[in-house]
Specification:
398 residues; alpha/beta; eight-stranded mixed β-sheet; 12 helices; globular
């Protein structure tokens, strides 16, 4: 078995968080590609279940091994005894792996901890022989991760998800349809209600696809039926389309005072280190910068959607000064344990009453000056330190 170099893996990192604008963003910016009279949409044929008002919404981002931080936040939040039952949970990429257990509640925190603190890279994927990679669909195979999914998302777990779905709660996972280049949102609870082996396989395929970084991992083929005809679609990481999401219209139709919680698996800003002027290093650093910038943009958009309707937006992410690499696909057990422990601290909060939320990304924390450069000569100046977030309600946006 050949070995793949770390720089090559680093080049694939940008895809993990999504290098392309989300479909929602493109839809806002672009005109329809075909006349409205001939546009079509796909409508699910399953019988819909009642939906209860979305008062508590949880959105989990992508981020690879940084998902250990997210699972730690949830665990610490549970220990504070202030974690609500979420009406809606959404997940993308590593967030899709976490979402089913987060949806089912604190009783499943241990399963998340076990996955994100005991696995290593070889438990998640296997690298192909280096000589065959140019002729393959991916650098690695996801067989090990599929086995983990099948062992954890058992018929009993899927039955529990179906039971919560019938109560009106919703669990959504997003993938990217490689053929249409669009984000697809899957209602996991509705799929679980269908029952049977086919339903379980479809759920496993969808979650696996949501975490399948293009190029690094192979696309996941999903067979769908449209107007009675079978069709195969190839799906990849939902992070290609968006780093995190809440379905369109969900927040806008929520009752007054909706609480939206977003947990970013990692930092909001990349590390600031000199980059060697070598092609792989330049590509990797540029992709990482794009990934973080895009995540911040989507977070701000989600915050504005929430606050426009009079709701409160709550944001949690890994602090900027936490020592870590920008590589989310290495899956080093020791580092993931550190992420988890830090997440537990964040989830508990300074007074053990729950996370200390932020309302928006803080530019000061990122050391990103807001001034405009007028030349190439500078001097340093002192700036007011960024105060840590508190449990006070987020400020409303103007």
């Amino acid at each position: 078995m050949g070995r793949i170099s770390v720089p090559l893996l680093c080049c694939l990192i940008p895809l993990l968080g999504g290098c392309l604008p989300s479909w929602a963003t493109l839809r806002r910016r672009a005109l329809p590609s075909v006349p409205p009279a001939v546009q079509t949409t796909m409508i699910s044929v399953e019988v819909p279940q009642p939906v209860r008002p979305a008062r508590h919404v949880l959105a989990l981002s992508g981020g690879g091994s940084y998902g250990a931080f997210t699972s730690g936040v949830l665990s610490g939040w549970s220990r504070s005894n202030n974690r609500p039952e979420f009406d809606v949970v959404t997940g993308i990429s590593t967030g899709a792996l976490i979402a089913p257990m987060a949806f089912l509640g604190p009783a499943y925190d241990y399963e998340l901890k076990k996955f994100y603190t005991e696995v290593s890279a070889q438990d998640v994927f296997s690298i192909r022989s280096i000589v065959t990679i140019p002729f393959r669909e991916s650098v690695a195979r996801l067989g090990p991760l599929r086995s983990i999914l099948e062992a954890n998302l058992t018929p009993e777990v899927l039955a529990a998800i179906a039971a919560e779905h019938r109560k009106g709660r919703r669990l959504y996972v997003a993938t990217t349809n490689l053929d249409s280049r669009k984000m697809v949102t899957w209602d996991i609870g509705a799929m679980a209600c269908s029952g049977g082996e086919n339903s379980a396989k479809l759920i496993h395929d969808v979650i696996l696809a949501s975490a399948s970084v293009p190029g690094l991992f192979p696309p996941v083929p999903i067979e769908v039926e449209i107007d009675g005809k079978l069709r195969k679609e190839n799906h990849v990481d939902g992070g290609v389309a968006a780093p995190l999401f809440v379905p369109a219209g969900l927040i806008e139709s929520a009752p007054p005072g909706v609480q939206v919680y977003a947990i970013v698996a990692g930092k909001l800003y990349p590390s600031t280190d000199p980059v060697p002027t070598r092609v792989l290093k330049v590509i990797a650093a540029s992709g990482v910068a794009l990934m973080h910038s895009y995540t911040r943009s989507e977070v701000v958009g989600l915050a504005r959607r929430t606050q426009v309707v009079g709701g409160d937006f709550h944001l949690s992410y890994l602090r900027q000064d936490f020592k870590a690499t920008d590589n989310g696909v290495q899956f080093h057990t020791d580092e993931m344990n550190r992420f988890f422990v830090e997440g537990v601290k964040v989830g508990l909060g300074p007074a053990n009453v729950g996370p200390g939320w932020s309302s928006l990304p803080h530019e000061a924390e990122a050391e990103e000056p807001s001034d405009i450069r007028t030349g190439a000569r500078f001097r340093t100046s002192l700036v007011a330190p960024h105060l840590p977030p508190t449990n006070t309600p987020p400020a409303k946006l103007p």
